[in-house]
């Protein structure tokens, strides 16, 4: 390769090294502006819903929303005041059976602080009533973390192994029914949420126990710091209007 070819290759690499970051930066700006434009109508709609401009949101039929799960990114879960505000909104709407989840167990560690600020709330372990029963005078709260899910699977697997060992049936197939029964026996089969609201940067359930989401509707709500009452009301309203066909 002669000197001219080497210089040409060097110039091309220099242009690519300078140009690609600029292209990426330009595309990032375009995407950011686009999503900002899309967010403007949602902001005003949420504002109008909060002030009762739209009559359809004033009366929600919550028969199908017996149990609600709130998944919060662990960094946001440290903001207890925002969590309590969210629970107050849910109570005012009429949603009183709630599961709070974050991966690192921040919400479980903040349980006492949440109960102190939310006098109407009771732990799921403290009430003897059926958790999915509508009780208007208080909220029933369940606190779950990623570790709970791992421990539940380990306990259920150990139970199934011991049962199969006693039956001398170590080659049997593991079915969903067997797993659900094992989780129920070890006390890790909580209520299945009808709706799961995710407050975080990504559109996923962040490790919420998968066996509790067979028919769960999942809605991404954005960051907890930017939560809005109108957006919460809209998400619940849309869920109540959806026809759910579970099959036979």
UniProtKB/TrEMBL annotation:
Its EC number is 2.5.1.87. It is found in: Endoplasmic reticulum membrane. GO terms for molecular function: ditrans,polycis-polyprenyl diphosphate synthase [(2E,6E)-farnesyl diphosphate specific] activity. GO terms for cellular component: dehydrodolichyl diphosphate synthase complex; endoplasmic reticulum membrane. The keyword Transferase applies. InterPro entries: Nus1/NgBR, UPP_synth-like_sf. It comes from the Eukaryota. The keyword Metal-binding does not apply. Belongs to the UPP synthase family. This is ditrans,polycis-polyprenyl diphosphate synthase [(2E,6E)-farnesyldiphosphate specific]. It comes from Lupinus albus (White lupine).
């Amino acid at each position: 390769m002669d000197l001219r070819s080497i210089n040409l290759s060097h110039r091309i690499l220099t242009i690519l090294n300078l140009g690609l970051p600029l292209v990426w930066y330009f595309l990032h700006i375009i995407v950011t502006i686009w999503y900002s434009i899309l967010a403007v109508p949602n902001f005003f709609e949420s504002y109008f819903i909060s002030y009762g401009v739209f009559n359809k949101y004033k009366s929600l039929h919550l028969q199908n929303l017996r149990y609600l799960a709130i998944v919060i990114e662990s960094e946001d879960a440290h903001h207890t005041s925002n969590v309590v505000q969210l629970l107050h909104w849910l109570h005012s709407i009429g949603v009183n059976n709630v599961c709070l989840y974050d991966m690192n167990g921040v919400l479980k560690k903040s349980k006492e602080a949440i109960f102190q600020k939310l006098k109407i709330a009771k732990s799921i372990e403290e009430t003897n009533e059926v958790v999915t029963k509508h009780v208007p005078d208080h909220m029933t709260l369940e606190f779950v973390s990623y570790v709970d899910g791992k421990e539940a699977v380990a306990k259920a697997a150990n139970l199934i192994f011991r049962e199969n060992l006693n039956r001398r049936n170590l080659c049997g197939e593991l079915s969903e029914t067997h797993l659900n029964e094992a989780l129920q026996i070890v006390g890790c089969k909580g209520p299945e949420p009808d709706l799961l609201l995710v407050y975080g940067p990504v559109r996923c359930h962040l490790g919420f126990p998968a066996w509790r989401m067979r028919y769960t509707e999942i809605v991404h709500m954005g960051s907890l710091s930017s939560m809005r009452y109108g957006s919460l009301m809209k998400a619940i309203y849309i869920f109540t209007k959806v026809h759910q066909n579970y099959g036979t």
